[in-house]
Amino acid sequence: MVAVFAMLWALAVANAGGGYDHNHPDVRWNTLETAHFFIHWPESTRPPDDPHWFTTEFSAGQLARIAEEAYPKICGQFDYYLDEKVHVVVYDQDSGWEGNGFAIAEYDWTGFAARWGPVYRQRGRAEFLEDVFVHEFAHIVSLKAYLPWSEGTTGFQVGGLSEDEEWLKRWGFSPRPPLNADLGVDLTVSAHAPFWWAEGGAEYWSEQAGTNEWGSSRDAFLRMTVAEGRVLDLAEWTTRMDKTGFDGERGYNHGYAFGLWLREKLGNDAMTAMAATSRERWRWSWDTIVEKTTGRSMEELYASWRRHLNQHYGAQVDAIRAEGVVAGRELALVEPAWERNDDAWQALEPKTRDERMDGASAYQELSRYSPDGAYVAWFDQGLNVREIAPNEWGAIGGSYMDDDDAVARKEWSKKTVSEGWAAHSRVSWSPDSRSLVAVGPEDFGRSSGLARFAMDHGLTFNADGYNWSQLVVGTLDSSGSRLTVDWRAVPNTLRAVEAAWSPSGDEIAFVRYGDGTHNLWSVGVDGSRPTQLTAFADGTQIQGLSYVDDGSGLLLSLFHSHQQDLWFFHLETRTFHRLTDTPHTETDPVVGPDGLAWFSSDADGVYNVYTLDPASGEVQKKTNLLGGSYGPDPVVGGHLLYTAFTGHGFRVMGVAADSLLSRTVDYPGICRVEACDDSAAFLAQQPEAVDARGQSEPYSAWRSTMPVSGWPVLRTTDKNVEVGASFFWGDYVEKHYLEGEVTFGKDNLVSLTYWNQQFWPSLNLGYMRYSYKGHYGYGEDADGLASTSEMSVVDLKFEQVSDDLWAYASYVASDVLWMGAGVDASRYAFRDNGDGTRFVPFTVHAGVGAYIDWTPWGDATDDQWINPRGGRRVYADYNRRWTAVVDPELAGAIYDDGQVMDRYGFHQITGSYTEYLPVTWWGLWDRGTLQLDIEGGWISRNVMGWDEFMAGGRHPYHWGNGTIGNNVQFSGYEGYSLTGETMLIANAAYRFPLTRNMNWKSGPVYTDSMYLQLFGSVGNLWSYRVEGDSHIEGYSVVPDAGTGRVRREIPFKDYASKNSPVGEPHYALSDIGAELRVRSFIWNDFDWDSFLRIAYGFQRTAGYGDVNADLVQSSVARDAATELSGEVEPATLRVYLGIGTGW
Amino acid sequence: MVWRGALLLAVAVCSGTADAGPFTKKSSQGEWTRSRVDRGWVLPKGWLSVGLAVEHKNSTSYRGSDGGLRAQPDGMLWQHSKLWLELHQGFSDRVTLYGRLPYVRSSLQPATGNQITTIAVGDAHAGIVMQSLGGAAWDTAVSADLKLPSGVEWPEGTGGPANTSSFLTGTGITNLGLYVHALARVPGVASAMARVGYVRKFPGVVGYVTATDGFGNGIINPGDEWVADTELRLSAASFASVAVVGTVRRLGTAVIGINGDGERLTTPVRHSAGTWVDAGVEVSVEPSAHWAVELGAAVDRYGGDSRPFAHLGLEEFSPQPGVQWSSRLVSRW
Asked: What DSSP string runs through A254-299?
């Protein structure tokens, strides 16, 4: 699957230089310039005999040719020829990009790996470089040609936040009981195009360019989608954001099909013409563009297209049924309800049925039974190995396990091993059926329980940035009560793709990837004797590898010179012998127990399973499927497993021997029957290419900088407005990039962050200057009693500025473990009456620290964003910090909690642990999650208030410093109102869906789901207090020498004196609340999540300054023993509403 | 910010309008109109313009309550300069976004005593211009301009009229101006432009209004403003043009006040209302689509009392009489 991320501003690939999580300073980038493109390609600087040496020279040379050939074909369709050159980046240093690409039109930037991933079946083409490049280039051109706005600013952002009750009072509302409301909105307005047009269009335009085709795989995909009633509706196909399973590919597939149908129906290229219509001016809805372009409404066209689909694919299905369907049933222990198709199943809601059929993965595929028929391995959320005879499967034997048979389920569980690390490449069994070889990661640890735990939970340290694939051998042990598999990596097999175990048992043949090309290798089972058998350097792809019975050679499928056929490779002579020469695609061959070559082919337009007798050349058709097949797996006893195209995913199917078709067919191009062209000459054909090495120059980040782009920003805070822009500027390999934001208004912000990714860790240097003009009322209380309401208020205006500098190095140790260390410094200053342009410095701070963050997720369901579930997050940091009070008006010192603060250093440790427990209470709510958090912090000494921990509810649109990361902890209290040097907070929340898969589109907003969360927190922040005799110095209370002291409060043993009003000691604070979360997207591709949170803190609180947040600071102290304010914040209902702000 | 802008401009200068990186020419960019008189108010789509503009005024006189010009004492010189960093971006075919940030230098050489000088960031402007209807011979547009209180609003010391030791570079309040534009042209020969606008000035607590005997600040409501501009531009060559310009501003009465025990106490500032009329000339030379140089001069021909906010240096409220020279260097791509 080519997952294309177009029109995304903030790229996930920006984690590190060169597109991967890790930087690769041992990689040299080269640039090949052509008439219309720059192709940036990596090559290792290691010695060529180093295991991690690699090059992409061939791929770059191919791309140069492909790109220039595509330029007029794509640009010509839109009559839109690019003046600017497009930068193409090849991401091939590590694993993870296979089959993926992206295009960002306004950056003139596209990138992808040089190879298909193992999952390309939906499209069925092995011509990856050409396929992906032209698709992505079609994005570049179409998403430029459609833009009504400048490429430099494809959108803008408008937002605002009103906090606290003060704003209500300004509008004349004084609710009783007091209501504290924070209301925020964040609206992104962007140029936009729906999923079906952007991705389906790229498929369509690449076909118009002659490099793409609507083949058997796409037809099977859509046929089964129609057959199962899974066609995306008018709302669904506008966004990719909520798509899971096959629905993501459906957006590509449907848009492509719709484009073809439009051309046929309307007789013109309406799909392309929509770009010109869109360019005229920005429109609220894409449907208006469709209507203006075609003269027909979107609803009308869609309905007509759906009728066409039903008719077209209905006819296909009818024709197959007329021949007689020969197909398997899904490989399952319990009979799938959709196959049983009883009344209970039919009574379910369609969405519920769809979700159950989808299961947890769309990719249940590529089974391989052991030669003795005792074990089967297949992929379903990783590799599964089960001890089970073929006829124990209901699909073959006819009888299923009862769904509620817990004993049987447990027994089968004992006979099953599941491993999540395995790549979806077909496994191969040893001849004795006691071992199998799979493809796993380079960073592999299964040697002990500890190593296994570390690998499964991401507690590993990848020091060189590489995690290529390699062969892994598993040895089965079924002697005990539970099946176990002992896994070990096979040395010298890096970048292995697929393997076959020799009949002799001591050798493994495997396919190794390099530079867009596959080659055959062999290696001893222990990793000895690695031997390269072929020397392709031309984009050849090999798959479906299997030894013939006598071990003399390998049956395989070879993609070469735009053609995929069956071949035999003779090991001794190292020569290829062609078995088929057809325009069809023969794929996944395997030598069956009967010695025949079993394979899948689309010879009759549908991928069916065939056998080829290599001796006679006889071909038999074994299945007659509605959908299609790949990965045939002939099993002892004559049964067949295969992987099927269904509307709900790829599924492993089983067919009993006596149900197979076994019809001899006239199959053209069998070389045993009719002479085929000269194999040697065919294999010698080389694709035309540019001499990448000869014509490239070393990559220059300076000469390869992206266009500067920015988003205008307008924010309001109460009655104030800030205007500015955020921007991003980097080079195409992301060795360097600069991002920042500049806004002006009452508050001025300049934020610049520079990232350097040339070294093993990523370096981050930043500077931020934030000046804030504020005013508050100073309440002069004539009678000195806080309890009386009389007060004269004086407005005081001030300007505060902070300058922050930081330098951090961060490193991704594993997918879920990252860490960093660095230094930072800050300066705070003020100016007010009489200061003129001069800021009076207040404090200077510096620190050195380190952090570690471990976030292993156990569940990656479609609701993970709104409902994180099945994982945990552990975070800890340590800082050594220094503070100096430098205000000359204060003589460089202030009092805090009874102590003089001038220059001091301290240690600060914070940590948090969050567990997301999947819980479905009483069966009421599917997908319920119990979230448990604990957060703690400790500062080694008494520090001034600004250095203390702070807690309290905070709106997500609020920007500024804060120590509380979780959004539900203590939201029953005023933001930043709770302070102290010791912090302990525990929180529990239960979250469950109110409605899911809503598919509700209203204007530009597409809403997917709503969740309700009930939560409560308990804990406190403790500080230092003055005890014993004390006296006043200035505005502060300090202990008397000898009879008074300042001491640290002990959590829970002491009450927190700062937040406790007189007579109300708070040993612990607590709150409860509820939160409604709404998961939405706007303009098809932008997250636009909203929430309503209501929280109630049970305790009244005291503190410093404007405790009750009415923007008036009372002059009255709480009592004689403290300088804390006499104000009290009552227990208040707090309402937080965020429209589009996230939660 | 100014230096960063200067750096960016320097990069632009060094790179010219290069074919790579941030100055890449894009196919989506609109067509540039060569002759100044044939242009409207918006940049073509996708164009970015970075400009540095300098304004400077010397004043040796003031206007009294009757608007009449009177000489300052011998030796007294008021100088007011602004260095503007200007960004304009052609957001779409008909919309241009812009931001303008001034660095302000205000200086007073009293008749006796030492010169008083303040240099600081002033109030930034951001806005949008939307060209609506138009044709070969005419164009219309509307625009909105937001003036943001990013400048310095605290006088140094006590800051009273008799005790000035620094000047302000910002008013501390937000303005929102809405304008209607119209233009008629003889293509390639001349154009005539008119603009009429209303500027709403939002009252707020500011640092330069203080209680006489207290330590608190107060509020200012400076009064709204009407503005009308005209410009007649003649094309001297395809790369040069000359314009005569005129501006009329009508300022409302400013009101200041502080909080008290009950209602807010407010007082109008005497003679703060008035009408100002300026006239000037401008020469524009554009050697290529990517560069422009402008030189201009303007003088006030009529005005109100220039004294109410003179001690604070707030030219927006109390412009001082004198010739204002201006120049602008623009790079765009």
From this structure: HHHHHHHHHHHHHSS-HHHHHHHHHHHS--S-HHHHHHHHHSS-HH
**Amino acid found at B148:** L
Interchain contact, B156 vs A799, CB within 8 Å: no
Question: Which residue is closest to B105 within chain A, CA to CA?
Answer: A837
Per DSSP, what are the bridge partners of residue B193? B183, B231
At a CB cut-off of 8 Å and minimum separation 6, what does A69 contact?
A: none
Could you report the per-residue pLDDT of A804-857, keeping only the tens digit for each?
999 999 999 998 999 999 999 999 999 988 889 999 999 999 999 999 999 987
Which pLDDT tens digit goes with each residue over A27-59?
999 999 999 999 999 999 999 999 999 999 999
Neighbours of A306 (CB within 10 A): 15
- pLDDT band of residue B214 (cuts 50, 70, 90) is low
Are the Cβ atoms of B149 and A796 closer than 8 angstroms? no
pLDDT, tens digit, for every residue of A9-19?
Answer: 333 333 467 78
| Helix (H), strand (E) at residue A684 | helix A679-684
User: To the nearest whole angstrom, how far is the Cα of A354 from the nearest Cα of chain B?
Assistant: 43
Residues 6+ apart with CB under 8 A from A599: A544, A557, A566, A586, A587, A588, A589, A590, A609, A610, A611, A612, A632
Q: A716: distance to nearest CA of chain B, Å?
A: 12
C-beta of residue B151 within 8 angstroms of C-beta of residue B104 = yes
**Gap between the Cα atoms of A871 and A456, Å rounded:** 12
d(CA A64, CA A35): 9
Q: Do A723 and B148 touch (CB under 8 A)?
A: yes
Between CA B279 and CA B43 the distance in angstroms is 26
Q: Which of residues 99-128 of A touch B (CB under 8 A)?
A: 108
Among B145, B154, B258, B261, most A C-beta atoms within 10 A, so best to mutate, is B154
- Are B150 and A84 within 8 A, CB to CB? no
As given in the structure block, the two tokens for residue A168 are 């209500």
Coil vs helix vs strand at A849: strand
Q: ipTM of the assembly?
A: 0.91
A860 interfacial to chain B (CB closer than 8 Å): no
Are the CB atoms for A476 and A499 separated by under 8 Å? no
Closest-CA residue to B26 (of A411, A54, A250, A709): A709
CB A330 within 8 A of CB A341: no
Q: Which chain B residues are Cβ-neighbours of A282 within 8 angstroms?
A: 92
Distance CA B55, CA B102 (A): 10
Give the integer Cα–Cα distance in Å for A54 and A52: 6
Name the packing angle between helices A298-323 and A247-266 (round to 10°): 100
Find, in chain A, the residue whose alpha carbon is nearest to that of B176.
A721
- Distance, in Å, from the CA atom of B169 to the CA atom of B149, rounded to the nearest integer, reads 9
Interface of A with B in 140-199 (CB under 8 A): 144, 147-153
DSSP codes, A577-605: EESB--SS-EEEEEE-TTS-EEEEE-TTS
- What residue in B sits closest to A83 (Cα-Cα)? B27
Shortest Cα–Cα distance, A883 to chain B (Å): 28
Q: Do B46 and A792 touch (CB under 8 A)?
A: no
Token reading at A757: 């990714």
Residues A414 and A481: beta-carbon distance below 8 Å: yes
Q: A963 in helix, strand or coil?
A: coil
- Residues of B within 8 A of A150 (CB-CB) are 28, 45-46, 89-92
* Token pair of A805 as six digits: 């500098």
Joined together, the tokens standing for residue A697 give 């120059």
Specify burial of residue A377 (Cβ count, 10 A radius: 0-12, 13-18, 19+). Answer: buried
pTM of the model: 0.93
